[in-house]
Specification:
heterodimer; A: 354 residues; B: 351 residues; mainly alpha; 2 strands
């Protein structure tokens, strides 16, 4: 239970960080703003959808990168008119955006409905299967992509300028952060948390458990799709390898490093991930301990292992405990028990979607 | 009361709709493969029985390999509710290790011809490599998984981290190029079947899978340890209460589960080669098999392997030639169909 005082402190820190990020382009180097921070915000937004589904639904999803990829591929197919591959629908960019997000939402709804009767470890495995089958579909079906993907994708007008893209990623991240936290206090969010904690009781109270899970997954998929659009505008291309099993696990790893039940953790984890990915080579002595210079994945794997063994709440959890002055005590018993963010009791009568 | 039977029967039909759909789909697929499949790479089975038999054997041999790998995964889950996401890494590590051992046994590192390979320089590396990854699996279980028994998601994330580290270290150690384990010369030739040539090595692989399956079945049904494991799957608390050393049983189960991943890895390295990325592919294959068959059930692993193997072999052969690349969608359709009827798989039970 987060106390009211620490909540305001968290809010103050988050607000300060946002202000800092708003003025960052004025003094940060181009490389830092356009490469590191833009990438961090995009990956953080994708990871935040995993946190959303985990914290409110108890559903750890490995399909979020696939949904981001669906949006990216669909934008590429719709916006280009004479690309080397794909459908080349030649729609105007903003129509293509709507088209990409609509397709992503429909796909998320269908996948969510199919997975809605499972939770926990079954959900994790099923969504991993979604992710890898999705990769294979894009790699094999040449009408929409094929193995080499879609190249020369151009962002809609103001976002061709890298700084504008950075601001778009920042604004959308802040909006998603606020929205995800606010949803926890709506009828729907409270019902989701009830479904997470005791699906059988919620079902007997008249809530449609499967529908709640499906809709949460759809909403998470839509936000992942937005992140996928930013990603494809930033990279200017998308290929199936970028949504294969490795990158799919990387998004989960980002959420885990940050703290899988903290929304702030998603962006914190993304920052750590991007910084490590960019600068592992320069860490002193890393080649002396049996790791050759390029062993980024070993470093990141060891980090996740350490976090899961010692402190499953991740960096955000460690920071919170430090700020409350309790230090690093015993690791908590349950890894992904999400903190109860609501201050009002869960409604006991029918109030959500029936 | 009068209209009750009517309502029940309407509801009955609605409830059985998914099952009816499944039977209709199966009937359509059978008719398609037997009579209608004009313009596909294989052709209707009545016109070209040879291609049908070859496709069927492809399905069975692939299913054999799937079973060996997935049975290890499902055995561990069934007893301990631990999802070992590093199963694919153990598979690939065994493949690479067996290739290295075989190369040192034969005395060459490149251009090993099947004639150079005696049956023992295939089975020896198989057993050694599988034992090695089995020991690694036990160490992993004792160090990282034993003390957080019951925290399924935490265990899954720990094994994901281990798989990322292992994948990176294998890339460092064995390089990014695909390597192949060489079949023994005694099984590297072809047999004639209905006018088609068929590789004996694939039949040999099926035989190995059958031996593994029968041994596993005998172990689980005819030995005391197997009996304890089956009891543990049903009620772990009761097994402990009876004074059985469950810690030892867990360690043995993890050993056997990892050993099966290793055996599968060596078979896979002989059949399709070992390369960076095979670990993810085979983790996925195991997941698909157990999600279809039901987690924790050996019967389910058999059924899941047969179904998935059949779809993988038949869909490219019996799709119209210009649409062959859509065959991957059929794996997904199989998964969706099974989950729509039984959310926990064919032989699965809710947690």
């Amino acid at each position: 239970m987060i106390s009211r005082r620490s909540l305001t402190r968290t809010n103050a820190v988050v607000a300060a960080v946002v202000v800092l990020l708003l003025v960052l382009p004025a003094f940060g180097s181009d490389f830092f703003v356009r490469f590191i921070m833009t990438q961090t915000l995009i990956l953080g937004l994708m990871a935040a959808t995993i946190v959303f589904l985990t914290a409110y639904g108890g559903m750890i999803s490995l399909a979020q990168l696939l949904l981001a990829g669906v949006a990216g591929f669909m934008f590429g197919n719709a916006a280009l008119s004479e690309g080397a591959r794909g459908l080349n629908l030649g729609l105007s960019p903003w129509v293509a955006v709507v088209f990409a997000l609509a397709v992503t939402t429909v796909v998320a709804f269908l996948l969510g409905a199919l997975a809605s009767r499972t939770t926990g470890i079954y959900f994790l495995m099923l969504t991993l299967v979604y992710g890898v089958i999705g990769y294979t579909v894009f790699a094999q079906v040449v009408t929409i992509s094929g193995p080499s993907g879609i190249t020369s994708i151009v962002a809609p007008e103001p976002f061709t300028e890298p700084v504008n893209l950075y601001y778009a990623a920042l604004v959308l991240s802040v909006l998603a952060y606020i929205a995800f936290r606010a949803i926890g206090r709506t009828n729907f969010g409270l019902a989701m948390q009830g479904v997470r904690d005791d699906p059988i009781r919620m079902s007997s109270l008249g809530f449609n458990v499967a529908l709640h899970r499906t809709l949460a997954f759809t909403l998470g998929g839509l936000v992942a799709g937005v992140a996928g659009l930013l990603n494809v505008w930033w990279r200017k291309q998308i290929d199936p390898a970028s949504i294969n099993i490795g990158p799919t696990l990387a998004i989960l790893i980002i959420a885990v490093i940050g703290g899988i039940s903290y929304f702030e953790g998603a962006w914190l984890g993304a920052l750590v991930y991007v910084l490590l990915n960019t600068y592992t080579k320069s860490i002193p002595l890393i080649d002396q301990i049996g790791l050759t210079p390029d062993r980024f994945n070993t470093v990141i794997g060891l980090m996740v292992l350490l976090i899961m063994v010692l402190s499953p709440e991740g960096l955000a959890g460690i920071l919170e405990r430090l700020s409350r002055g309790r230090g690093l005590g015993k690791p908590t018993q349950h890894s992904v028990e999400p903190p109860t963010t609501s201050t009002s009791p869960v409604r006991t009568g029918p109030g959500g979607l029936q | 009361m009068v209209d009750t039977p009517v309502r029940t029967s309407t509801r009955d039909v609605a409830r059985r709709l998914p099952a009816l759909t499944v039977w209709l789909v199966l009937a359509f697929v059978a008719v398609w493969v037997l009579f209608l499949a004009e313009g596909t790479s294989a052709g209707p089975a009545v016109d070209d029985p040879g291609r049908f038999v070859v496709t069927l054997l492809d399905a069975l041999t692939f299913a054999g390999l799937l079973f060996v790998v997935a049975s290890g995964f499902t055995l561990i889950f069934g007893l301990m509710r631990t999802v070992n996401m590093a199963h694919g890494s153990l598979f690939l590590l065994a493949g690479f290790t067996a290739i290295a051992i075989q190369q040192s046994m034969v005395g060459k590192t490149t251009n090993i011809a099947p004639e150079d390979v005696s049956i023992w320089s295939w089975i020896g590396p198989l057993l050694l490599a599988a034992a090695l990854v089995a020991v690694l699996g036990v160490v992993m279980h004792q160090v990282f998984l034993r003390w957080n028994q019951g925290q399924e998601l935490r265990q899954a994330l720990i094994t994901i981290a281990i798989s990322v580290i292992l994948a990176d270290q294998m890339l460092r150690q064995f390089g990014g190029l695909a390597k192949t384990m060489v079949w023994p010369g005694a099984v590297s030739h072809f047999v004639e079947l209905f006018g088609e040539r068929y590789a004996t090595s694939r039949l040999f692989m099926l035989a190995v899978a059958l031996v593994v399956g029968v041994a596993l079945w005998l172990w689980l049904t005819r030995t005391r340890m197997g009996m304890v494991i089956r009891a543990g799957v049903d009620d772990e608390g009761m097994v402990r209460a009876l004074g059985i050393n469950a810690t030892l049983v867990f360690a043995v189960t993890f050993f056997v589960g990892a050993f099966l991943a290793g055996v599968g890895g060596v078979m896979g390295a002989s059949f399709a080669g070992a390369a960076t990325g095979s670990d993810g592919t085979w983790l996925l294959n195991s997941l698909v098999v157990v999600i279809i068959g039901g987690l924790g059930s050996i019967k389910g692993a058999v059924a899941g392997s047969l179904l998935y193997g059949t779809v993988v072999a038949f869909s490219p052969a019996y799709l119209p030639s210009q649409y062959t690349f859509y065959s991957v969608i059929f794996s997904f359709a199989l998964l969706a169909l099974v989950l729509a009827v039984r959310p926990y798989g064919l032989f699965g039970r809710p947690a």
